[in-house]
Amino acid sequence: MSAVQAVTPFETIRTPDAASRPVKIHTVAVKVTYGQKEALHGVSIDIPEKAVTAFIGPSGCGKSTFLRCINRMNDTIAGARVEGTIKLDDQNIYDPDLDVVELRARVGMVFQKPNPFPKSIFDNVAYGPRIHGLARSKADLEEIVVTSLQKASLFNEVKDRLNEPGTGLSGGQQQRLCIARAIAVSPEVILMDEPCSALDPIATAKVEELIDELRANFTIVIVTHSMQQAARVSQRTAFFHLGHLIEEGPTDHVFTNPLEQRTQDYITGRFG
Amino acid sequence: MTEAASRLPVSRLGGPEVRAISRIDIGLRRRYAAERRFRAYGLAAVTIALCFLLALFGSIVGKGYTAFQQTRIAMMVDFDASIIAPDGDRSPAAVLSGNAFRFDDLIAASLQKTLELDPDDEDGLYDGLDLLSKGSAPMLRSMIAKDPSLIGTKRSVDFYATGDVDSFVKGTIRADIPESQRLIKDKHIALIDKLEKDGALHLAFNTGLFTNGASTRPEMAGVGVALVGSLYMMLVVLVLSLPLGVAGSIYLEEFAPKNRWTDLIEVNINNLAAVPSIVYGLLGLAVFINFAHLPRSASLVGGLVLTLTTLPTIIIATRAALKAVPPSIREAGLGVGASKMQTVFHHVLPLAMPGVLTGTIIGLAHALGETAPLLMIGMKAFIVEYPTTPLDPATALPTQIYMWATEPERAFTERTSAAIIVLLAFLLAMNSLAIILRRAFERRW
Questions:
Q1: Is residue A158 in a domain?
Q2: Full domain range(s) for residue A205
């Protein structure tokens, strides 16, 4: 692993956090290859607990690929191979003994396009708790659903139509439903893969507000194309370019005073 | 703003630009003409197809509808106890055994009465008997065996007329051809006219067409055994090919690694779908009958062979339906921590269900009409008795049609068409069911 780092011409520039938070996810030299093509060339990063970490960078830079390593979603892609270490609370998630289903219950995910199940709003949120056996009774389940919808600030909009299909909601509501579905299984980490790219500005604002609230209870990692969004919602920002992690540090630091020329060029819109 | 924009190029660029615009116009006209031509071709193709379909249905229905009615001759029968049960034993077993000709005597007696014949007029009696189906005496016997309380009573019984009389009454055997070439002679015509005038000869709905088994006498032949055989086969096909096909497709589509072996399997499944069905018949003959020693002509073997022909269709349809489920649903399931199996069975399969069911029913409909493999395994036998289990010999609707089509009698010609109508009705019903199920399972996206 150290050999890999030695041949890498890129040295990630790190700025430590002023208010240092405990580390939730710790990765060392994560490499991802799709068949013959290496998409990620060794990413090492520490993601702090109960904070929002934003991954920014141009399309194809590997930020989504890296995000999907954290809950092993890349396992589902044929020919994808992941090397390196990813630790969640000191536990290696690529350990053969680790159950991937349990991992995904601990690390939830919200996708780019809202993808509610074609079932009722209630069933969408209740699905996770049901399969994991989190509710002991029907009342229990109802409580989990209501709390999750409330946490996702969706409850007031849908409380009268919980039995209507989730696919009938507007795009922004659907995405908040997906967030409610993710938090219903009480994960520790929520991964968000460009959660607002399919939403209008008003729905985006609502989701961003929600992300800010969720930070109190969850560790959030968000991939975004919008630098304004990264600046608004995140505490730490990591800049990816061509499969390398170029720079990472506190968000205000990265945006106002980047140490690396490429970061500077990207956030000022000179490329990407 | 739009006005300014549209006016600007013309005023600024003048002459040459105008020519350029008109050149675009010519191109447009050609493109629109091409589109109109294409539409006309399409319309013509659909019209021709509809015409052929109409001609096909018209000819089949036109030839076959008469078979749903049948000529009957109603006669008062005296169920004389001294003839039927000369030794006093009225049990069904006693009725079925003993001298079979005693029932012919009953019929002869009632025919003499109906035609008001002189008891000594033997020629007249035989001419009259010519009109009645040769199956009349066995019919009377089984009727009495079923209900021995008839013995000693007098009751009107509807006898079947022979197929030739039936054809004559329906006009397919014409009276204006010379008597020597006619199957129905003048003396018969006289008797038919007399019976018709008395109201004894009449047309009735042909229930026997649906309930009877094979018979050399067209008036007694029906598709009953073939219907039961086809039903058994469809059950076998459904029970075997739906779970096997769906489970196989789910494995191949969702779980199997994508490598050279699965590619090879996929190519071969597509090849199997194109294998002529008679080859499956040979395979069934070799494997199920010669090797596994399953009975010949059994609907179980037919079902097994048809399962082989149907499986590729179902697998291809199911895989296409599974492929059409957006990957975002799989990600959603996996993302909340569902296992792969849970994701497939809770989310992917329900969404693929309309496609799976349509594919299955189309496959079944195909199997229902399949003939060649059934000929190979001997399902074109002369079966009179209903099969009680799928292991009993039976025929199938398409093979019954094939057998009747080779019979020379006029009455079999109309029955062939009638059997085709029955088969088409089943296919239509199955396809409608496919559409209904598709609607029922389709979820709004």
A1: no
A2: 2-115+187-267
